[in-house]
Amino acid sequence: MALNKTHIIKKIMSRNGFTGERSAETLEILLEIIKGTLASGEDVKISGFGRFCVKEKKERKGRNPATGEDLMLSPRKVVTFRCSGILRDRVNNG
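^ thats the sequence. predicted structure below, dont judge the formating
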């Protein structure tokens, strides 16, 4: 089962004693800060967790899988995530 916003809000409520409304607001504020920072082209580094990076993809050749037609994919930005060594160790060693 994937962890979704509702689960995160419930965990914030149980750990901090916040109301559901305050927990949801806290999560939304955090996500807006992260999204705004990434949209401005800056990386987001969370110590002990990892780094969200904005990478530039160049124009490249691609193919439509439905028709097999060749096409050019336009340049774009993508967000990548690289986990910290602490998180990697915790995931691998429980």
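The two ends are 17 Å apart (CA to CA).
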